[in-house]
TrEMBL record:
SUPFAM superfamilies: Alkaline phosphatase-like. It holds the Pfam family Sulfatase. This is Arylsulfatase A-like enzyme. Keywords: Calcium, Hydrolase, Metal-binding, Signal. Residues 23-337 form the Sulfatase N-terminal domain. It comes from Neolewinella aquimaris.
């Protein structure tokens, strides 16, 4: 039986706690959104009233991070509460992505089946679990959400698809909309709206028992599809910037449908609601804005790894909080599981921490003294307020973030001893990681060095320019 020791422990705890008033959990995950592209982040361009009201009754994190600057590994970290590098998943599982091959076996490259997910933990605790939207953790059936701890699934297995129904069904099943396993059928309307409606219906059906709903939007990832009536709300914008504003409006509207359902059913007070994003905005692809952060998706500058991050739980957390210490999306799994009746000992192998004690004042220290990122030779470490970025093709960079959120003042030359020490810290962390699974074929041993030519040609990945329109 898979995961026997932890599952039995969780079931035992569940049998004690099932009758208790445990919180419901709703996790809203955006895709490729810009750090600055929400009203609660200060944007004067985007229209996000529903997410703004979520912030007003919860906690806004100013330093929320993900464990990887691209979709697949970041989501693997979120789902497991572990750095994805620990199980060899440090590349996006899209064939041909930035290299000759990033997933040597196509749909067979997914979240390793021996890893437990949020769904596994919460399902074992008696929660009804559901996953809606973008999966991107492997296309083969053994990787499917219904085999990874989720009772229900409505979405698609791959990393991107159209927002409107396909007239001609894609031959790749990963891009086709699916209910359960193998029940492929296209939707009516605009997919972002449909996913919000499906999540609200799940909440309605399960209002009398603890539930966990993970709504993983593909918005605002390309292709840049938007409803014409949403585009018309932004006459002062043009091109992809206008489209991403319209897509963000739809994202917020779908979140509003879910929030309204919780309020209508009287469930808001004891529901943990989280909203965040999987990585920084790819400003060149969808005109998102990460201002005032430098960098974009795929980089280890703040614009690639720092994301909007919100949590609401009115019964436990004070409203209108701004939390300014660094936190990670790795923290969500332990936060959810412990709130749901799990025990600390079942989570000791994770890299995330339970955020609740830090948010209610019981623990005044930082949730994390150090955070790490890695993709091949390129890597980064945040140690306190210092951050080192290591490159394969040029000297490392060092930044002191409280004085330099935009990472424009490289202090590596001025702080050589700190650079040496952080290299040692990074090396020590790497010693505990697994070799990337797609690199087990030795012919790729030198790939990271060889593809630096690609990185140099694509200098936009290392831009220090303000993203999109240069302002919020």
């Amino acid at each position: 039986m898979k995961f026997l020791p932890v599952v039995l422990l969780c079931v035992f705890v569940s049998s004690i706690a099932f009758g208790q008033d445990r919180p419901n959990i709703v996790f809203l995950l955006a895709d490729d959104a810009g750090y600055a592209d929400f009203g609660f982040q200060g944007s004067k361009t985007m229209i996000t009233p529903n997410l703004d009201r979520l912030v007003a009754r919860g906690v806004r994190f100013t330093q929320g991070y993900v464990s990887h600057p691209t979709c697949g590994p970041s989501r693997a970290g979120i789902l497991t509460g572990k750095y994805p590098h620990r199980f060899g998943y440090e590349e996006n599982n899209v064939p041909g992505y930035m290299s000759p091959v990033s997933a040597v076996d196509g749909e067979e490259m997914g979240l390793p089946v021996e890893e437990q997910t949020m769904g596994d933990y919460l399902q074992a605790l008696g929660y009804r679990t559901a996953y809606f939207g973008k999966w991107h953790q492997g296309g083969a059936d053994r990787f499917h959400p219904l085999n990874r701890g989720f009772d229900e699934f409505y979405g698609f297995r791959g990393g991107a698809r159209d927002y409107f129904s396909y007239e001609n069904m894609p031959t790749d099943p990963q891009n086709r909309l699916e209910r359960g396993i193998g029940n492929f059928a296209e939707h009516d309307g605009y997919l972002t709206d449909v996913l919000g409606d499906e999540t609200a219906e799940f909440i309605e059906r399960n209002k009398d028992r603890p539930f966990f709903a993970l709504l993983a939007f593909n918005a605002v990832h390309s292709p840049m599809d938007a409803r014409p009536e949403d585009v018309e709300r932004f006459p002062g914008l043009a091109g992809h910037r206008q489209k991403v504003a319209a897509m963000t409006l739809a994202l917020d509207r779908a979140c509003g449908v879910v929030l309204d359902k919780l309020e209508h059913l009287g469930l808001t007070e004891n529901t943990i609601i989280v909203f965040t994003n999987d990585n920084g905005g790819p400003t060149d692809n969808n005109a998102s804005s990460n201002y005032p952060l430098s960098g974009t998706k795929s980089t280890y500058l703040e614009g690639g790894i720092r994301v909007p991050f919100v949590m609401s739980w009115p019964r436990q957390l004070r409203a209108e909080q701004v939390y300014e210490q660094p936190v990670s999306a790795l923290d969500l799994l332990p936060t959810f599981v412990l709130a749901g009746g799990g025990v600390v000992s079942s989570l000791s192998h994770l890299d995330g921490v339970n955020l609740v004690p830090y948010l209610n004042g019981a623990n005044q220290s930082r949730p994390h003294e150090r955070l790490f990122w890695k993709r091949g030779v390129r890597a980064a470490v945040r140690d306190g307020d210092w951050k080192l970025i290591r490159y394969a093709d040029r000297p490392a960079e060092l930044f002191y973030l409280p004085d330099d959120i935009s990472e424009r003042n490289d202090l590596a030359i001025a702080e050589p001893e700190r650079v040496r020490e952080l290299f040692k810290v990074l090396f020590a962390w790497e010693m505990g990681l697994s070799r990337p699974r797609w690199l087990l074929d030795t012919k790729y041993d030198r790939l990271d060095m060889e593809r630096q030519d690609i990185y140099r040609d694509q200098s936009k990945f290392f831009t220090r320019e303000r993203s999109a329109d240069g302002k919020q």
